[in-house]
Every structure is written in structure tokens, then in C-alpha cells.
Design brief:
By secondary structure, this protein is α+β, with helices and mostly antiparallel strands. The chain is about 35% helix and about 30% strand.
């Protein structure tokens, strides 16, 4: 099997982002974005997706808040993920998961299609979740979907506690991604599309 790793690095006047993704890992992660809750969510993505993830981000959050850091982290993780997927040969392509966390229940369905699209309904807009604005969680998922060219639907079906809602969502995303990137032994040499490509365009 080809080495399915991807890297991303970018420095701007707002952030410095370094990301390494290994789709065939064991769920090991080293995450440092400066925001503890975002770090926690990315650790869930790594552990439950069995995706090794190394993320180092520094930004201008002390001056402008968390928007630039969250958005650029999402872009970095997405583009490293996209690089790791390559032409998508052999992957199952689609995945879904429904994950509970106490009273919260989240559903994620996705398609690694080459067409970035996001439908996100988490019920946490206007809520601060241990220093991470709830609407930035929605924005993270949107940016991740668009930049990784994944069609992503994420919905919180039930829940009260905002932490539980977003953690259930990231765990569901992890499990859905794990299924979608898995190599299908019945089609290991095939690109999973009737048009022969899942590249954008």
C-alpha cells in the first residue's frame, strides 16, 4: 500500500500552521493550537479515526480572538488530509456514524467526493464552550469539508450540554472518516467513482 500521509505548512500575518496526517496510523496525536477545547476535539478525531495527527498552530488570538486560529487549523488539517488521500484509489469513499455522549447524540455522514460541501447543525451557536465559541466549531467543520473536498453532513440529534454535543460530533466525524478512508479489499485498485476520478473539477 502507498504511504498515505499528507503535510501542510503555511505562515501568514495571522497564523503559523504545521500539520502532518497519517491515515494508516493508530490514533496517536500531538496537538497544540493554543485553544484547549480545539486541541481536545482534534485529539478525538485522531483517536477514534485511527488517524495519526500532528498539529502545531500559533496565531494572533490575543489580538483578534480565535477565528483566525480555528479557521486556519481547519484549512491545514483538511489540506493535509486531502494530500494523504491522493487519488483515492481503493478507499470506500463514503462513511457515516451515529455517536452518543451521555445525553447528546450526533450523526455524521460524509462522501470523499472531490466536491466540498457542508450542512452543519450543532445547536451551539452563541455558546462559549470552555473558551471555544460554538459558532467557530460550525465554521471549523465547514472549512474542513470545503478544503478537503468532502461532502459533510453533521447534525446533533439530541443533547443539552454543548461540550457533549461537539465531542459527540467529532467522534462521529472520526468514525465516519475511518470507514470512508479504509481500503476496500474488493476494489483496492479502483478509484471509487464511475467517472474515474474524485478530484475536484
Amino acid at each position: 500500500m502507498a504511504n498515505r500521509t499528507g503535510k501542510y505548512a503555511r505562515t501568514t500575518g495571522e497564523t503559523d500552521v504545521r500539520v502532518v496526517v497519517d491515515l494508516d496510523g493508530n490514533g496517536a496525536s500531538t496537538i497544540d493550537t493554543g485553544n484547549g477545547m480545539l486541541d481536545h476535539m482534534l485529539s478525538q478525531l485522531s483517536r477514534h479515526g485511527l488517524i495519526d495527527l500532528d498539529v502545531k498552530v500559533s496565531g494572533d488570538s490575543a489580538k483578534t480572538g480565535w477565528h483566525h486560529t480555528v479557521e486556519d487549523t481547519a484549512i491545514g488539517v483538511a489540506r493535509a488530509f486531502l494530500a494523504a488521500i491522493g487519488d483515492g484509489r481503493g478507499i470506500r469513499r463514503m462513511g457515516h456514524a451515529i455517536v452518543p455522549l451521555d445525553e447528546a447524540l450526533s450523526r455524521v455522514a460524509l462522501d470523499i467526493s472531490g466536491r466540498g460541501y457542508a450542512v452543519i447543525d450543532l445547536g451551539v451557536t452563541g455558546v462559549d464552550i470552555a473558551g471555544l465559541p460554538g459558532d467557530l466549531v460550525r465554521h471549523f467543520l465547514e472549512a474542513f469539508a470545503i478544503e478537503s473536498r468532502i461532502s459533510l453532513h453533521a447534525t446533533v440529534l439530541a443533547g443539552v450540554n454543548p461540550h457533549h454535543k461537539i465531542e459527540a460530533t467529532f467522534k462521529a466525524l472520526a468514525r465516519a472518516l475511518r470507514d470512508a478512508v479504509e481500503i476496500d479489499p474488493r476494489a483496492a485498485q479502483q478509484v471509487p467513482s464511475t467517472k474515474g476520478t474524485i478530484s475536484a473539477g
